Amino acid sequence: MARHNFKKLEIWKAGMEISKMIYTLTDKFPQKEQFALTTQLNKCGVSMPSNIAEGAYRTSNKEFRRFLDISLGSSAEAETQLTIAEWRGYITIEELETAVAKIDSFQKRTVTFHEKLNLL
To answer: How far is CA 41 from the centre of its chain?
Structure first.
């Protein structure tokens, strides 16, 4: 059985921080985006750590890797949506750059963890 304690994983902690950051940013979005960009971006932020947590309790590393892939996909989607938010003037370029740096770091660490799971 290949279960992992997700709360001890640095990638889960990083995903949680990104999720918090996204919610803080989207709190400033205009009301007209409530059922569009705001909701979609918040879902991405929630998906990143949630998929790590779910995958950690699967019975094989192969299954866990699949959930890590989903988490990585959500991180790329979040970066795209944050870029759109900056284009629309909902966040500053500085906020975008900070968010992208955190997402890039999350992606690199998640890929490294994914590769380590291949060896187990």
So the answer is: 10
